[in-house]
Structure prediction request, 425 residues.
Amino acid sequence: MCSDPVTFPNLVTGFERNPQHAARSALYTRFTPNEWTTSNVCTYADADKNRNYSEKVRSEAVRLMRETDEKTSQGQRDAARRLGERITDITFWRNELTTELEKLIAESAQLTDTKRNVQKALQDLEPPLHIAQECLYHRESRKGIELVHDHVEKSLLVEVDNLRASQEKLSQLLAKITKQLADCRAAQHSLEDDISHKESALGIDSICHQLNNYSRGINYYGGIEKYDPTVSTPGTWSGSSSTRINNSHSERSKSCQLRSDAESLINAVATSVWDCWSNTNNAFNNRASEMLEAKSKMQLHLHKTQQEIFDVEKHIELLRKAINDKSNPMKVAQTRLEARAHRPGIEMCRDNAHLRLVEEVCTIQDSVATLHRKLQEAEAQHQQLLRTKSQLESNLKQKVDALFIDREKCMGLRRSFPVNNTIKY
Prediction:
Protein backbone atom coordinates (compact mmCIF):
# COMPACT_ATOMS: atom_id res chain seq x y z
CA MET A 1 0.00 0.00 0.00
CA CYS A 2 1.18 3.49 -0.76
CA SER A 3 0.22 6.65 1.02
CA ASP A 4 0.52 10.27 -0.01
CA PRO A 5 2.60 12.58 2.11
CA VAL A 6 0.81 15.13 4.28
CA THR A 7 0.35 18.43 2.48
CA PHE A 8 -0.82 21.67 4.03
CA PRO A 9 -3.13 23.91 2.07
CA ASN A 10 -2.15 27.35 1.02
CA LEU A 11 -4.20 29.87 2.89
CA VAL A 12 -4.80 31.82 -0.30
CA THR A 13 -4.44 29.60 -3.34
CA GLY A 14 -5.01 26.15 -1.93
CA PHE A 15 -2.85 23.10 -2.59
CA GLU A 16 -2.07 23.30 -6.24
CA ARG A 17 -0.79 26.79 -6.56
CA ASN A 18 2.46 28.57 -6.85
CA PRO A 19 4.40 28.04 -3.59
CA GLN A 20 6.11 31.34 -3.80
CA HIS A 21 2.97 33.21 -4.25
CA ALA A 22 1.46 31.21 -1.35
CA ALA A 23 4.32 32.07 1.02
CA ARG A 24 4.09 35.74 0.20
CA SER A 25 0.32 35.73 0.70
CA ALA A 26 0.66 33.92 4.05
CA LEU A 27 3.11 36.52 5.25
CA TYR A 28 0.67 39.29 4.68
CA THR A 29 -2.34 37.41 6.22
CA ARG A 30 -0.77 36.40 9.53
CA PHE A 31 -1.98 38.04 12.82
CA THR A 32 0.31 39.52 15.35
CA PRO A 33 0.59 38.12 18.85
CA ASN A 34 -1.12 41.17 20.26
CA GLU A 35 -3.97 40.67 17.95
CA TRP A 36 -4.09 37.08 18.93
CA THR A 37 -4.06 37.98 22.63
CA THR A 38 -6.61 40.69 22.09
CA SER A 39 -8.74 38.26 20.18
CA ASN A 40 -8.58 35.78 23.01
CA VAL A 41 -9.47 38.44 25.56
CA CYS A 42 -12.43 39.49 23.46
CA THR A 43 -13.48 35.90 23.08
CA TYR A 44 -13.26 35.44 26.85
CA ALA A 45 -15.25 38.61 27.38
CA ASP A 46 -17.89 37.55 24.91
CA ALA A 47 -18.05 34.14 26.57
CA ASP A 48 -18.41 35.75 30.00
CA LYS A 49 -21.01 38.15 28.65
CA ASN A 50 -22.98 35.39 27.01
CA ARG A 51 -22.76 33.24 30.13
CA ASN A 52 -23.87 36.14 32.32
CA TYR A 53 -26.73 36.92 29.99
CA SER A 54 -27.62 33.24 29.87
CA GLU A 55 -27.59 33.11 33.67
CA LYS A 56 -29.73 36.24 33.75
CA VAL A 57 -32.14 34.69 31.24
CA ARG A 58 -32.24 31.53 33.23
CA SER A 59 -32.79 33.45 36.47
CA GLU A 60 -35.56 35.50 34.90
CA ALA A 61 -37.04 32.35 33.39
CA VAL A 62 -36.97 30.62 36.80
CA ARG A 63 -38.44 33.70 38.43
CA LEU A 64 -41.07 33.95 35.71
CA MET A 65 -41.87 30.26 36.03
CA ARG A 66 -42.19 30.64 39.77
CA GLU A 67 -44.30 33.76 39.36
CA THR A 68 -46.50 32.15 36.71
CA ASP A 69 -46.81 28.97 38.79
CA GLU A 70 -47.71 31.03 41.85
CA LYS A 71 -50.07 33.22 39.83
CA THR A 72 -51.66 30.17 38.24
CA SER A 73 -51.96 28.43 41.61
CA GLN A 74 -53.32 31.60 43.16
CA GLY A 75 -55.74 31.92 40.25
CA GLN A 76 -56.88 28.35 40.72
CA ARG A 77 -57.26 28.85 44.46
CA ASP A 78 -59.15 32.09 43.93
CA ALA A 79 -61.35 30.47 41.29
CA ALA A 80 -61.94 27.51 43.63
CA ARG A 81 -62.74 29.93 46.46
CA ARG A 82 -65.15 31.83 44.23
CA LEU A 83 -66.71 28.55 43.14
CA GLY A 84 -67.03 27.57 46.81
CA GLU A 85 -68.69 30.90 47.56
CA ARG A 86 -70.97 30.39 44.60
CA ILE A 87 -71.82 26.89 45.81
CA THR A 88 -72.56 28.36 49.25
CA ASP A 89 -74.83 31.00 47.69
CA ILE A 90 -76.62 28.45 45.53
CA THR A 91 -77.01 26.11 48.50
CA PHE A 92 -78.40 28.96 50.63
CA TRP A 93 -80.97 29.99 48.03
CA ARG A 94 -81.80 26.38 47.24
CA ASN A 95 -82.48 25.74 50.93
CA GLU A 96 -84.53 28.94 51.14
CA LEU A 97 -86.50 27.93 48.07
CA THR A 98 -86.95 24.38 49.38
CA THR A 99 -88.18 25.64 52.74
CA GLU A 100 -90.58 28.05 51.05
CA LEU A 101 -91.73 25.27 48.71
CA GLU A 102 -92.48 22.98 51.65
CA LYS A 103 -94.45 25.75 53.37
CA LEU A 104 -96.31 26.50 50.14
CA ILE A 105 -97.15 22.82 49.58
CA ALA A 106 -98.42 22.54 53.16
CA GLU A 107 -100.47 25.72 52.74
CA SER A 108 -101.86 24.45 49.43
CA ALA A 109 -102.86 21.18 51.12
CA GLN A 110 -104.63 23.10 53.89
CA LEU A 111 -106.34 25.31 51.32
CA THR A 112 -107.42 22.19 49.42
CA ASP A 113 -108.96 20.85 52.64
CA THR A 114 -110.68 24.20 53.11
CA LYS A 115 -111.99 23.98 49.55
CA ARG A 116 -113.45 20.54 50.30
CA ASN A 117 -115.04 21.94 53.46
CA VAL A 118 -116.58 24.82 51.48
CA GLN A 119 -117.85 22.38 48.84
CA LYS A 120 -119.27 20.18 51.60
CA ALA A 121 -120.90 23.21 53.24
CA LEU A 122 -122.33 24.23 49.87
CA GLN A 123 -123.71 20.74 49.36
CA ASP A 124 -125.07 20.67 52.92
CA LEU A 125 -127.18 23.74 52.16
CA GLU A 126 -129.16 21.85 49.53
CA PRO A 127 -131.19 19.65 51.94
CA PRO A 128 -132.47 22.52 54.14
CA LEU A 129 -133.24 24.58 51.03
CA HIS A 130 -135.14 21.66 49.52
CA ILE A 131 -137.00 21.12 52.80
CA ALA A 132 -137.94 24.81 53.09
CA GLN A 133 -139.18 24.88 49.49
CA GLU A 134 -141.04 21.61 50.07
CA CYS A 135 -142.71 23.13 53.14
CA LEU A 136 -143.77 26.17 51.10
CA TYR A 137 -145.14 23.83 48.43
CA HIS A 138 -147.08 21.78 50.99
CA ARG A 139 -148.49 24.90 52.62
CA GLU A 140 -149.89 25.96 49.24
CA SER A 141 -152.30 23.03 49.65
CA ARG A 142 -154.11 24.86 52.43
CA LYS A 143 -157.60 26.02 51.55
CA GLY A 144 -159.83 28.90 52.36
CA ILE A 145 -159.01 31.16 55.23
CA GLU A 146 -156.05 28.94 56.14
CA LEU A 147 -154.13 30.39 53.19
CA VAL A 148 -152.81 33.08 55.48
CA HIS A 149 -149.47 34.84 55.09
CA ASP A 150 -148.52 33.95 58.64
CA HIS A 151 -145.27 34.08 60.56
CA VAL A 152 -144.44 30.54 59.44
CA GLU A 153 -144.57 31.50 55.79
CA LYS A 154 -142.53 34.63 56.46
CA SER A 155 -139.95 32.54 58.32
CA LEU A 156 -139.81 30.03 55.48
CA LEU A 157 -139.30 32.80 52.92
CA VAL A 158 -136.58 34.34 55.09
CA GLU A 159 -134.97 30.91 55.44
CA VAL A 160 -135.03 30.33 51.67
CA ASP A 161 -133.55 33.78 51.01
CA ASN A 162 -130.88 33.20 53.64
CA LEU A 163 -129.99 29.78 52.21
CA ARG A 164 -129.73 31.17 48.69
CA ALA A 165 -127.64 34.12 49.88
CA SER A 166 -125.42 31.68 51.79
CA GLN A 167 -125.04 29.55 48.67
CA GLU A 168 -124.07 32.63 46.69
CA LYS A 169 -121.47 33.64 49.29
CA LEU A 170 -120.03 30.13 49.45
CA SER A 171 -119.95 29.91 45.65
CA GLN A 172 -118.04 33.19 45.43
CA LEU A 173 -115.66 31.98 48.15
CA LEU A 174 -115.20 28.69 46.31
CA ALA A 175 -114.29 30.58 43.13
CA LYS A 176 -111.74 32.64 45.08
CA ILE A 177 -110.25 29.50 46.62
CA THR A 178 -110.02 27.84 43.19
CA LYS A 179 -108.24 30.90 41.79
CA GLN A 180 -105.93 31.04 44.81
CA LEU A 181 -105.07 27.35 44.39
CA ALA A 182 -104.16 28.07 40.76
CA ASP A 183 -101.95 30.97 41.90
CA CYS A 184 -100.34 28.73 44.53
CA ARG A 185 -99.70 26.05 41.93
CA ALA A 186 -98.12 28.68 39.66
CA ALA A 187 -95.89 29.87 42.52
CA GLN A 188 -95.07 26.23 43.36
CA HIS A 189 -94.12 25.54 39.74
CA SER A 190 -91.92 28.64 39.75
CA LEU A 191 -90.19 27.49 42.95
CA GLU A 192 -89.76 23.94 41.68
CA ASP A 193 -88.35 25.23 38.39
CA ASP A 194 -85.90 27.49 40.25
CA ILE A 195 -84.91 24.65 42.61
CA SER A 196 -84.36 22.32 39.64
CA HIS A 197 -82.15 24.90 37.96
CA LYS A 198 -80.21 25.47 41.17
CA GLU A 199 -79.76 21.74 41.67
CA SER A 200 -78.30 21.50 38.17
CA ALA A 201 -76.11 24.54 38.70
CA LEU A 202 -75.03 23.20 42.10
CA GLY A 203 -74.04 19.88 40.55
CA ILE A 204 -72.09 21.59 37.78
CA ASP A 205 -70.34 24.00 40.15
CA SER A 206 -69.57 21.15 42.59
CA ILE A 207 -67.91 19.19 39.79
CA CYS A 208 -66.00 22.30 38.72
CA HIS A 209 -64.95 22.93 42.33
CA GLN A 210 -63.56 19.41 42.61
CA LEU A 211 -61.52 19.59 39.38
CA ASN A 212 -57.72 19.86 39.71
CA ASN A 213 -54.67 19.55 37.49
CA TYR A 214 -54.74 15.77 37.77
CA SER A 215 -58.45 15.28 37.19
CA ARG A 216 -59.63 13.11 34.34
CA GLY A 217 -61.64 14.60 31.53
CA ILE A 218 -59.96 18.01 31.45
CA ASN A 219 -59.24 19.28 27.96
CA TYR A 220 -58.54 22.35 25.85
CA TYR A 221 -61.48 24.39 24.60
CA GLY A 222 -59.97 27.10 22.49
CA GLY A 223 -61.75 30.46 22.52
CA ILE A 224 -64.22 29.40 25.24
CA GLU A 225 -63.26 32.46 27.28
CA LYS A 226 -64.56 34.70 24.51
CA TYR A 227 -68.00 33.02 24.56
CA ASP A 228 -70.36 34.69 27.08
CA PRO A 229 -73.59 32.69 27.56
CA THR A 230 -74.56 34.45 30.82
CA VAL A 231 -78.05 36.01 31.08
CA SER A 232 -77.95 37.46 34.58
CA THR A 233 -75.76 39.13 37.15
CA PRO A 234 -75.36 38.15 40.80
CA GLY A 235 -77.80 40.91 41.72
CA THR A 236 -80.48 39.87 39.24
CA TRP A 237 -79.84 36.19 40.02
CA SER A 238 -80.43 36.56 43.76
CA GLY A 239 -83.21 39.09 43.05
CA SER A 240 -85.03 36.53 40.89
CA SER A 241 -84.99 33.92 43.67
CA SER A 242 -85.94 36.55 46.24
CA THR A 243 -88.84 37.67 44.04
CA ARG A 244 -90.08 34.10 43.71
CA ILE A 245 -89.85 33.57 47.46
CA ASN A 246 -91.64 36.85 48.13
CA ASN A 247 -94.30 35.91 45.59
CA SER A 248 -94.76 32.54 47.26
CA HIS A 249 -94.92 34.20 50.68
CA SER A 250 -97.54 36.60 49.35
CA GLU A 251 -99.58 33.72 47.96
CA ARG A 252 -99.28 31.88 51.27
CA SER A 253 -100.49 34.99 53.10
CA LYS A 254 -103.44 35.28 50.74
CA SER A 255 -104.18 31.59 51.16
CA CYS A 256 -104.01 31.85 54.96
CA GLN A 257 -106.33 34.87 54.92
CA LEU A 258 -108.68 33.05 52.56
CA ARG A 259 -108.73 30.01 54.86
CA SER A 260 -109.54 32.27 57.79
CA ASP A 261 -112.28 33.97 55.78
CA ALA A 262 -113.64 30.59 54.70
CA GLU A 263 -113.75 29.32 58.27
CA SER A 264 -115.46 32.50 59.45
CA LEU A 265 -117.95 32.39 56.57
CA ILE A 266 -118.74 28.71 57.14
CA ASN A 267 -119.37 29.38 60.82
CA ALA A 268 -121.43 32.49 60.01
CA VAL A 269 -123.46 30.57 57.43
CA ALA A 270 -123.90 27.71 59.86
CA THR A 271 -125.11 30.06 62.57
CA SER A 272 -127.50 31.92 60.27
CA VAL A 273 -128.87 28.71 58.76
CA TRP A 274 -129.37 27.19 62.19
CA ASP A 275 -131.02 30.38 63.50
CA CYS A 276 -133.41 30.50 60.54
CA TRP A 277 -134.11 26.78 60.93
CA SER A 278 -134.83 27.21 64.64
CA ASN A 279 -136.97 30.31 64.08
CA THR A 280 -139.02 28.51 61.43
CA ASN A 281 -139.46 25.46 63.67
CA ASN A 282 -140.55 27.72 66.54
CA ALA A 283 -142.95 29.47 64.18
CA PHE A 284 -144.33 26.07 63.12
CA ASN A 285 -144.79 25.05 66.76
CA ASN A 286 -146.46 28.33 67.64
CA ARG A 287 -148.67 28.12 64.57
CA ALA A 288 -149.56 24.52 65.42
CA SER A 289 -150.49 25.62 68.95
CA GLU A 290 -152.62 28.45 67.56
CA MET A 291 -154.35 26.11 65.11
CA LEU A 292 -154.93 23.53 67.86
CA GLU A 293 -156.49 26.22 70.02
CA ALA A 294 -158.56 27.48 67.07
CA LYS A 295 -159.55 23.91 66.25
CA SER A 296 -160.66 23.32 69.83
CA LYS A 297 -162.67 26.55 69.83
CA MET A 298 -164.09 25.66 66.42
CA GLN A 299 -165.14 22.25 67.72
CA LEU A 300 -166.70 23.87 70.77
CA HIS A 301 -168.63 26.33 68.61
CA LEU A 302 -169.65 23.54 66.28
CA HIS A 303 -170.95 21.53 69.24
CA LYS A 304 -172.85 24.54 70.57
CA THR A 305 -174.20 25.28 67.09
CA GLN A 306 -175.37 21.70 66.70
CA GLN A 307 -177.07 21.91 70.09
CA GLU A 308 -178.64 25.21 69.11
CA ILE A 309 -179.86 23.69 65.84
CA PHE A 310 -181.44 20.89 67.82
CA ASP A 311 -183.07 23.40 70.15
CA VAL A 312 -184.28 25.55 67.25
CA GLU A 313 -185.71 22.51 65.52
CA LYS A 314 -187.60 21.63 68.70
CA HIS A 315 -188.71 25.28 68.96
CA ILE A 316 -189.93 25.20 65.36
CA GLU A 317 -191.88 22.09 66.11
CA LEU A 318 -193.40 23.81 69.14
CA LEU A 319 -194.26 26.85 67.02
CA ARG A 320 -195.88 24.68 64.42
CA LYS A 321 -197.78 22.83 67.11
CA ALA A 322 -198.82 26.17 68.62
CA ILE A 323 -200.09 27.32 65.22
CA ASN A 324 -201.91 24.06 64.74
CA ASP A 325 -203.35 24.40 68.23
CA LYS A 326 -204.88 27.74 67.23
CA SER A 327 -206.84 26.16 64.41
CA ASN A 328 -209.58 24.61 66.58
CA PRO A 329 -210.21 27.73 68.66
CA MET A 330 -210.33 29.67 65.38
CA LYS A 331 -212.80 27.19 63.99
CA VAL A 332 -214.91 27.42 67.14
CA ALA A 333 -214.95 31.21 67.12
CA GLN A 334 -215.65 31.47 63.42
CA THR A 335 -218.29 28.75 63.66
CA ARG A 336 -220.00 30.68 66.44
CA LEU A 337 -219.92 33.86 64.37
CA GLU A 338 -221.25 32.02 61.33
CA ALA A 339 -223.97 30.41 63.35
CA ARG A 340 -225.00 33.66 64.97
CA ALA A 341 -225.12 35.25 61.52
CA HIS A 342 -228.25 33.18 60.93
CA ARG A 343 -230.17 34.81 63.77
CA PRO A 344 -233.54 36.16 62.54
CA GLY A 345 -234.69 39.78 62.41
CA ILE A 346 -233.85 41.98 65.28
CA GLU A 347 -231.87 39.21 66.92
CA MET A 348 -228.99 40.20 64.72
CA CYS A 349 -227.71 42.31 67.59
CA ARG A 350 -224.14 43.57 67.92
CA ASP A 351 -224.01 42.42 71.44
CA ASN A 352 -221.10 41.78 73.71
CA ALA A 353 -220.98 38.17 72.65
CA HIS A 354 -220.64 39.17 69.00
CA LEU A 355 -218.02 41.73 69.87
CA ARG A 356 -216.14 39.22 71.97
CA LEU A 357 -216.26 36.60 69.24
CA VAL A 358 -214.96 39.11 66.70
CA GLU A 359 -212.25 40.13 69.14
CA GLU A 360 -211.44 36.47 69.75
CA VAL A 361 -211.10 35.77 66.03
CA CYS A 362 -208.92 38.83 65.56
CA THR A 363 -206.84 37.88 68.56
CA ILE A 364 -206.36 34.34 67.26
CA GLN A 365 -205.53 35.65 63.82
CA ASP A 366 -202.99 38.06 65.32
CA SER A 367 -201.55 35.26 67.40
CA VAL A 368 -201.31 32.97 64.39
CA ALA A 369 -199.70 35.72 62.36
CA THR A 370 -197.24 36.40 65.15
CA LEU A 371 -196.55 32.69 65.46
CA HIS A 372 -196.04 32.44 61.69
CA ARG A 373 -193.60 35.31 61.84
CA LYS A 374 -191.75 33.66 64.68
CA LEU A 375 -191.85 30.38 62.76
CA GLN A 376 -190.39 32.07 59.69
CA GLU A 377 -187.78 33.76 61.86
CA ALA A 378 -186.95 30.44 63.55
CA GLU A 379 -186.76 28.66 60.22
CA ALA A 380 -184.53 31.42 58.85
CA GLN A 381 -182.37 31.19 61.91
CA HIS A 382 -182.35 27.43 61.52
CA GLN A 383 -181.06 27.83 57.99
CA GLN A 384 -178.49 30.32 59.22
CA LEU A 385 -177.42 27.89 61.90
CA LEU A 386 -177.15 25.17 59.28
CA ARG A 387 -174.99 27.45 57.14
CA THR A 388 -172.94 28.32 60.24
CA LYS A 389 -172.61 24.63 60.99
CA SER A 390 -171.50 23.95 57.43
CA GLN A 391 -169.05 26.83 57.62
CA LEU A 392 -167.74 25.64 60.97
CA GLU A 393 -167.36 22.12 59.63
CA SER A 394 -165.61 23.45 56.54
CA ASN A 395 -163.33 25.66 58.64
CA LEU A 396 -162.70 22.78 61.01
CA LYS A 397 -161.76 20.53 58.10
CA GLN A 398 -159.52 23.26 56.70
CA LYS A 399 -157.86 23.69 60.08
CA VAL A 400 -157.43 19.96 60.46
CA ASP A 401 -155.88 19.80 56.98
CA ALA A 402 -153.66 22.83 57.68
CA LEU A 403 -152.66 21.36 61.02
CA PHE A 404 -151.83 18.07 59.32
CA ILE A 405 -149.76 19.90 56.69
CA ASP A 406 -147.84 21.96 59.24
CA ARG A 407 -147.44 19.38 61.98
CA GLU A 408 -147.12 16.15 60.01
CA LYS A 409 -145.86 16.99 56.55
CA CYS A 410 -143.72 20.05 57.24
CA MET A 411 -142.56 19.30 60.77
CA GLY A 412 -142.03 15.69 59.74
CA LEU A 413 -139.42 16.98 57.30
CA ARG A 414 -137.92 19.33 59.87
CA ARG A 415 -137.58 17.04 62.87
CA SER A 416 -133.81 16.71 62.39
CA PHE A 417 -131.38 19.28 61.05
CA PRO A 418 -129.85 17.78 57.86
CA VAL A 419 -126.39 19.40 58.29
CA ASN A 420 -124.16 17.63 60.81
CA ASN A 421 -120.64 17.10 59.42
CA THR A 422 -118.75 20.07 58.00
CA ILE A 423 -120.64 22.89 59.67
CA LYS A 424 -119.95 22.96 63.39
CA TYR A 425 -122.27 24.55 65.90
